[in-house]
Amino acid sequence: MIREKIKNMKAKHILLTSIVFIFLISSIVSGSTIITDNYIKVFGVSIWKPYDAIVARYPDMAGDYVCQDSDCSDEIQSAIDYVESNGGGTVFIKSGVYPINNTIYIGNNTMLKGNSRQSAIVNQGNSKMIVNKPSSSNIVITDLYFDGGGKNYAIIDFSTADNVRITMNTFTNVGSTASVAVNDGTNFIISNNIFAPPFGGDAIYSNNAERLVVYGNEIDSPGDTGVAIDGSVEAKSIVVSNNIIKNNGQQGIALGGNANKVTISSNIIYGGARGIRLDPFGYPTEPNQVNIINNILTDLSTVGIELYENYSVLVAFNRFVSVPTKVIEHSSTTRNVVYFKNIGYATENYGTNTFSGDDVTQEFYINHGLVSQPTTVVVTPVSLNATGDFYVSFNDTTITIHYVNPPPSGTDNIILSWYATI
């Protein structure tokens, strides 16, 4: 019986292997699969072959490049250069602590991967830690633990790079500069990273990026801003979503300059000064075409959302909790802003109120509950005794219905439906 089961298992394994082999062969023949020494691309999707070069830390000698002294810069750089010279692939950093004195440069078609954040790269020099080579593309940095050594240098600083993914890393111990900076390139994804204190500057900074996604990061106690997006020339097609940012020094999320076509959604920002800030920050053009949707902003000491010299902004479905000073502040130069169904900042409201007439009273009052004086108020009589001639006035707190003649006496006989919006 046991032999028969083993025989059946082998037969199934051979069948599965044959199916996979036939699939690969057919896709190669059809031109949909490309095989190189470093990766397999099936139907346009690259599958990295693991560990084209392995970096180990003494006493672990099982690696292509083994760091045995107090500076591992050369070993990591040599592994990257080797992989790049062979068309690209994965440099695997094994578990251990890797101090570096010099900047590591990474280029085309290269993945730098650690072992589930148990591979720690520590800055003990006086320079940035990871920088892209000029005009490079297709770079992945993942599963690493970065310690900035308390220096005023970025951990990752990419400029004019394309198709970059920075994911599942931990960043900590950076001075007053940004921990991760991506500038002047396209197609960046910064996702599911942990930014742990101390760090004195921004967690994530970007200037003039196009198609940038910042998603699912946990940012704790940035000295300045959690996610800062600038457009000194133009930043566009930006998504900042599902991040948790707490105890910021200045603001959780900031847009500056010509940052347009931006969606800020489903983030949780709590503790610190401001929640979300849109401001030219000295650049000639202001943020525009911005959607701020479905965020939770709580326990902020200064303001929930600050809009300064912006235009075309939608603020909708956000929740404000324990923002004692000012929930939303916008300057007189901010224009074309739409507020819709925010909890804790009522810009529209409606209801039905019931009163009792007494043949004397001509004015009836409704508290509209909006954050300021409405611009539009509609009052509709619901009961027969409420249908007399009247006009409506309103201020910051109250809608007043003025009847020309007092409604007749009765109990709960004056019923009015109303709607108000800013």
Walk me through the structure:
The protein is mainly β and 422 residues long. It is 10% helix and 52% strand. The chain has two helices and 38 strands. It has a 29-stranded parallel sheet that branches. A three-stranded antiparallel sheet has the order 1-2-3. A hairpin with a 3-residue loop joins strand 1 and strand 2 (39-42). The chain is elongated and about 95 Å long. The N and C termini lie far apart (79 Å).
Topology:
Blueprint: H1 2-29, E1 33-35, E2 39-42, E3 45-48, E4 53-57, E5 65-67, H2 73-85, E6 89-93, E7 96-100, E8 104-106, E9 110-113, E10 119-123, E11 130-132, E12 137-142, E13 145-147, E14 156-159, E15 162-167, E16 170-174, E17 180-183, E18 186-191, E19 194-199, E20 204-207, E21 210-215, E22 218-220, E23 225-241, E24 244-265, E25 268-279, E26 288-293, E27 296-298, E28 303-307, E29 311-316, E30 319-321, E31 328-330, E32 335-340, E33 348-355, E34 363-367, E35 376-381, E36 390-394, E37 398-403, E38 414-421
Parallel strand pairs: 4-5, 4-6, 6-9, 7-10, 8-11, 9-12, 10-13, 11-14, 12-15, 13-16, 14-17, 15-18, 16-19, 17-20, 18-21, 19-22, 20-23, 21-23, 22-24, 23-24, 24-25, 24-26, 25-27, 25-28, 26-29, 27-30, 28-31, 29-32
Antiparallel strand pairs: 1-2, 2-3, 33-38, 34-37, 35-38, 36-37
